[in-house]
Specification:
The structure is a single chain. By secondary structure, the protein is an alpha+beta fold. About 55% of the residues lie in helices and about 10% in strands. It contains 10 helices and 5 strands; from the N terminus they run ααββαβααααααββα. Helix 3 packs parallel to helix 10 and helix 5 crosses helix 9. The longest helix is centred in the first third of the chain and has 45 residues.
Length: about 260
């Protein structure tokens, strides 16, 4: 018997069963499509949320991308993560880990800066500054990183120390992420003679040294330091010493210089 004849002899019940099978198959395909579409929507929503979150702290032009690790001019030390201030021939080295949003760092700078600068200018001390972004991690935002990048840009221009001091003198309250804004960083750069140039602006707004800053912060984390500031005198942590004063530090440096 031919296929055609067999088809012709199908009963109404068989045709109905076949139709039901087709409907069930179509329903399964429809449900699968709904599930796939739902997943795509969720992923799309997640992507949108991610973009919003990534841009929520974005300011008037500074980059949120870490980018390549580009050390500032003259950086030295392990992995080129230190910004040096003072003469290389100085017998004493002060290693300072700081965060430009850190109030305790500002307190240290305010108390010790005159002594440190006096001794570096006299050739008795060299300082190695390491920049961390601890407050960004604790409070959120990008002000620590963006300020550190701007300070590295100032190092490229040979004006790190002056800009470093201006950042601390004008430090916002810890909860105010003002340094996330490149406009604010440029405004403060205007307080340093010769710093505001097109090259400096590009460096600040594009986050040229962001990758280097993040590598520096990772080194800080790997060092398991208690917090910022961390101050080492010839490798020994002295800021944790409650008896330490600028006068005592000066005496230690001068004694080392005589020796």
């Amino acid at each position: 018997m031919s296929d055609k004849n067999r088809d012709g002899k199908r009963t109404a019940r068989e045709r109905l069963a076949a139709e039901r099978d087709k409907q069930k198959a179509a329903e399964r395909r429809r449900r699968k499509l709904i599930v796939v579409s739902s997943v795509v929507c969720v992923l799309g929503l997640a992507a949108v949320i991610g973009v919003v979150a990534a841009n929520s702290g974005k300011d008037d032009g500074s980059s949120d991308k870490a980018g390549p690790v580009v050390p500032p001019f003259g950086a030295n030390g392990k992995d080129t993560l230190a910004i040096p201030v003072g003469k290389e021939s100085a017998k004493s080295t002060l290693t300072v880990w700081e965060d430009f949003r850190c109030p305790a760092c500002k307190a240290f700078e305010s108390a010790y800066r005159p002594t440190i600068q006096e001794l570096t200018d006299a050739g008795k001390l060299k300082v190695e500054y390491h920049l961390a972004t601890l407050i960004d991690g604790n409070m959120g935002g990008t002000g620590s990183r963006n300020a550190a990048n701007a300070a590295a840009c100032a190092q490229d221009a040979g004006l790190f120390r002056a800009y470093h001091d201006v950042l601390y003198e004008n430090q916002p309250v810890e909860t105010d992420d003002a340094y996330a804004k490149s406009a604010k960083l440029m405004e403060l750069a205007g307080k340093v003679d010769g710093l505001v140039t097109s090259m400096f602006r590009i460096c600040v707004e594009e986050g040229t040294h962001n990758g280097w800053v993040e590598k520096s912060n990772q080194a800080f984390q790997n060092g398991h330091f208690g917090g910022t500031p961390t101050v080492l005198f010839n490798g020994k942590n002295i800021y944790a010493d409650q008896s330490m004063t600028p006068a005592k530090l000066k005496q230690m440096i001068e004694e080392a210089d005589k020796g």
